[in-house]
Write a structure and sequence with these properties.
- The protein has 190 residues and is α/β, with parallel strands linked by helices.
- The chain has one domain: Pyruvate-ferredoxin Oxidoreductase, domain 3 (3-Layer(aba) Sandwich), CATH 3.40.920.
- Helices cover 38% and strands 21% of the residues.
- It has six helices and seven strands.
- It has a seven-stranded mixed sheet with strand order 2-3-1-4-5-6-7, with helices on both faces.
- A hairpin with an 8-residue loop joins strand 2 and strand 3.
- The longest helix is centred in the last third of the chain and has 17 residues.
Protein backbone atom coordinates (compact mmCIF):
# COMPACT_ATOMS: atom_id res chain seq x y z
CA UNK A 1 0.00 0.00 0.00
CA UNK A 2 1.86 3.08 -1.23
CA UNK A 3 -0.79 5.62 -0.34
CA UNK A 4 -2.91 6.22 2.69
CA UNK A 5 -6.26 4.43 2.77
CA UNK A 6 -9.01 6.66 4.14
CA UNK A 7 -12.34 5.15 5.16
CA UNK A 8 -15.50 6.99 6.16
CA UNK A 9 -18.18 5.05 8.02
CA UNK A 10 -21.86 6.09 8.13
CA UNK A 11 -24.41 4.55 10.45
CA UNK A 12 -26.62 5.19 13.42
CA UNK A 13 -25.86 5.26 17.11
CA UNK A 14 -26.07 1.76 18.58
CA UNK A 15 -24.99 -0.08 15.40
CA UNK A 16 -21.36 -0.44 16.46
CA UNK A 17 -19.91 1.91 13.83
CA UNK A 18 -17.20 3.16 16.19
CA UNK A 19 -16.25 -0.40 17.17
CA UNK A 20 -15.88 -1.49 13.53
CA UNK A 21 -13.83 1.62 12.74
CA UNK A 22 -11.50 0.89 15.67
CA UNK A 23 -11.21 -2.83 14.85
CA UNK A 24 -9.94 -2.02 11.34
CA UNK A 25 -7.32 0.29 12.84
CA UNK A 26 -6.29 -2.21 15.52
CA UNK A 27 -5.93 -5.02 12.98
CA UNK A 28 -3.87 -2.79 10.66
CA UNK A 29 -1.73 -1.67 13.60
CA UNK A 30 -0.88 -5.30 14.35
CA UNK A 31 0.47 -5.48 10.77
CA UNK A 32 2.86 -2.62 11.51
CA UNK A 33 0.79 0.07 9.78
CA UNK A 34 0.25 3.60 11.03
CA UNK A 35 -3.39 4.20 11.88
CA UNK A 36 -5.98 6.69 13.04
CA UNK A 37 -9.55 5.89 14.05
CA UNK A 38 -12.08 8.26 15.55
CA UNK A 39 -15.83 8.79 15.66
CA UNK A 40 -17.71 12.01 15.05
CA UNK A 41 -20.76 12.39 17.22
CA UNK A 42 -22.02 14.47 20.07
CA UNK A 43 -24.68 13.75 22.64
CA UNK A 44 -26.89 11.97 20.07
CA UNK A 45 -29.05 9.12 21.20
CA UNK A 46 -29.22 5.62 19.76
CA UNK A 47 -30.55 5.84 16.24
CA UNK A 48 -29.05 9.26 15.42
CA UNK A 49 -26.72 9.42 12.38
CA UNK A 50 -23.04 9.02 13.24
CA UNK A 51 -19.81 9.03 11.26
CA UNK A 52 -16.47 7.49 12.00
CA UNK A 53 -13.13 7.65 10.23
CA UNK A 54 -10.21 5.26 9.73
CA UNK A 55 -6.85 6.02 8.17
CA UNK A 56 -4.25 3.34 7.44
CA UNK A 57 -0.80 4.10 6.04
CA UNK A 58 2.71 2.73 5.65
CA UNK A 59 4.07 6.11 6.77
CA UNK A 60 3.24 8.34 9.75
CA UNK A 61 -0.11 10.10 9.46
CA UNK A 62 0.07 13.86 9.90
CA UNK A 63 -3.59 14.66 9.19
CA UNK A 64 -5.83 15.31 12.16
CA UNK A 65 -9.24 16.13 10.73
CA UNK A 66 -12.30 14.25 9.42
CA UNK A 67 -11.83 12.44 6.12
CA UNK A 68 -13.00 14.55 3.20
CA UNK A 69 -11.95 12.37 0.24
CA UNK A 70 -12.40 8.73 1.24
CA UNK A 71 -11.27 5.82 -0.89
CA UNK A 72 -13.82 3.63 0.94
CA UNK A 73 -17.29 4.58 2.15
CA UNK A 74 -19.04 2.11 4.44
CA UNK A 75 -22.80 2.58 4.86
CA UNK A 76 -23.85 0.56 7.90
CA UNK A 77 -27.47 1.80 7.69
CA UNK A 78 -28.97 2.03 4.20
CA UNK A 79 -31.86 4.17 5.51
CA UNK A 80 -29.35 7.06 5.46
CA UNK A 81 -29.28 6.93 1.65
CA UNK A 82 -31.11 9.98 0.37
CA UNK A 83 -30.97 11.71 3.77
CA UNK A 84 -27.26 12.61 3.73
CA UNK A 85 -24.62 13.07 1.04
CA UNK A 86 -22.85 9.84 1.94
CA UNK A 87 -20.51 9.83 -1.06
CA UNK A 88 -19.32 13.42 -0.69
CA UNK A 89 -15.69 13.69 -1.80
CA UNK A 90 -15.34 9.97 -2.55
CA UNK A 91 -12.61 9.02 -5.01
CA UNK A 92 -13.90 8.22 -8.52
CA UNK A 93 -12.41 4.73 -8.22
CA UNK A 94 -13.65 4.35 -4.66
CA UNK A 95 -15.27 1.41 -2.93
CA UNK A 96 -18.77 1.59 -1.43
CA UNK A 97 -19.93 -1.11 1.00
CA UNK A 98 -23.61 -1.07 1.98
CA UNK A 99 -25.54 -3.09 4.55
CA UNK A 100 -28.62 -3.96 2.48
CA UNK A 101 -30.59 -6.81 0.96
CA UNK A 102 -30.29 -5.06 -2.42
CA UNK A 103 -27.90 -6.17 -5.14
CA UNK A 104 -24.86 -3.96 -5.90
CA UNK A 105 -26.31 -2.94 -9.26
CA UNK A 106 -29.44 -1.57 -7.54
CA UNK A 107 -27.38 0.35 -4.99
CA UNK A 108 -25.14 1.77 -7.72
CA UNK A 109 -28.21 3.11 -9.52
CA UNK A 110 -29.82 4.43 -6.32
CA UNK A 111 -26.66 6.28 -5.30
CA UNK A 112 -25.82 7.41 -8.83
CA UNK A 113 -22.35 5.90 -8.72
CA UNK A 114 -20.54 5.96 -12.08
CA UNK A 115 -17.17 4.34 -11.34
CA UNK A 116 -15.52 2.38 -8.60
CA UNK A 117 -16.81 -0.76 -6.94
CA UNK A 118 -20.05 -1.40 -5.06
CA UNK A 119 -20.44 -4.18 -2.50
CA UNK A 120 -23.54 -5.15 -0.59
CA UNK A 121 -24.03 -7.48 2.35
CA UNK A 122 -27.10 -8.43 4.38
CA UNK A 123 -25.29 -7.53 7.60
CA UNK A 124 -28.35 -6.97 9.78
CA UNK A 125 -29.82 -10.32 8.73
CA UNK A 126 -26.51 -12.07 9.39
CA UNK A 127 -26.25 -10.37 12.82
CA UNK A 128 -29.77 -11.42 13.77
CA UNK A 129 -29.06 -15.01 12.78
CA UNK A 130 -25.59 -15.17 14.36
CA UNK A 131 -25.81 -13.07 17.51
CA UNK A 132 -29.59 -12.66 17.82
CA UNK A 133 -29.27 -8.85 17.82
CA UNK A 134 -29.54 -6.28 15.02
CA UNK A 135 -26.02 -4.94 15.46
CA UNK A 136 -24.51 -5.08 11.96
CA UNK A 137 -20.98 -3.81 12.64
CA UNK A 138 -19.13 -7.12 12.69
CA UNK A 139 -20.76 -8.49 9.53
CA UNK A 140 -20.01 -5.17 7.81
CA UNK A 141 -16.41 -5.56 8.99
CA UNK A 142 -16.31 -8.98 7.28
CA UNK A 143 -17.53 -7.39 4.04
CA UNK A 144 -14.92 -4.63 4.43
CA UNK A 145 -12.11 -7.17 4.78
CA UNK A 146 -13.23 -8.96 1.60
CA UNK A 147 -13.86 -5.78 -0.44
CA UNK A 148 -10.61 -4.00 0.39
CA UNK A 149 -8.14 -6.86 0.80
CA UNK A 150 -6.43 -4.66 3.39
CA UNK A 151 -6.54 -7.23 6.19
CA UNK A 152 -6.40 -10.99 6.58
CA UNK A 153 -9.72 -12.48 7.67
CA UNK A 154 -8.09 -14.96 10.06
CA UNK A 155 -6.17 -12.17 11.80
CA UNK A 156 -9.35 -10.08 12.09
CA UNK A 157 -11.22 -13.06 13.58
CA UNK A 158 -8.50 -13.32 16.22
CA UNK A 159 -8.61 -9.56 16.88
CA UNK A 160 -12.41 -9.70 17.34
CA UNK A 161 -12.08 -12.73 19.60
CA UNK A 162 -9.42 -11.01 21.73
CA UNK A 163 -11.33 -7.74 22.05
CA UNK A 164 -14.79 -9.24 22.64
CA UNK A 165 -13.65 -11.98 25.05
CA UNK A 166 -12.98 -9.28 27.63
CA UNK A 167 -16.58 -8.02 27.55
CA UNK A 168 -18.89 -10.77 26.32
CA UNK A 169 -19.88 -14.37 27.06
CA UNK A 170 -18.18 -17.03 24.88
CA UNK A 171 -21.36 -17.72 22.86
CA UNK A 172 -21.63 -14.01 21.97
CA UNK A 173 -17.98 -13.93 20.94
CA UNK A 174 -18.35 -17.01 18.74
CA UNK A 175 -21.59 -15.63 17.27
CA UNK A 176 -19.70 -12.52 16.21
CA UNK A 177 -16.91 -14.62 14.70
CA UNK A 178 -19.56 -16.54 12.74
CA UNK A 179 -21.15 -13.25 11.59
CA UNK A 180 -17.74 -11.98 10.45
CA UNK A 181 -17.04 -15.18 8.52
CA UNK A 182 -20.46 -15.31 6.89
CA UNK A 183 -20.36 -11.70 5.71
CA UNK A 184 -16.84 -12.19 4.34
CA UNK A 185 -18.16 -15.13 2.29
CA UNK A 186 -21.59 -13.68 1.40
CA UNK A 187 -20.68 -10.10 0.39
CA UNK A 188 -21.83 -9.38 -3.15
CA UNK A 189 -20.13 -7.27 -5.82
CA UNK A 190 -20.76 -6.41 -9.43
Amino acid sequence: MAEMLEVRWHGRGGQGVKTACYLVAESALSLGKYVQAFPEFGPERAGAPVRAFTRVSDTPIRRHYPIQSPKVVVIVDASLIGQLNLLEGMAKDGIVIVNTEEEPKQVRKRLGIKGGKVYTVSATKIALESIKRAIPNIPVLGAFVRATGLLDIEAVKQDVRNKFSKRFRPEVVEGNIEALRRAYEEVRSE
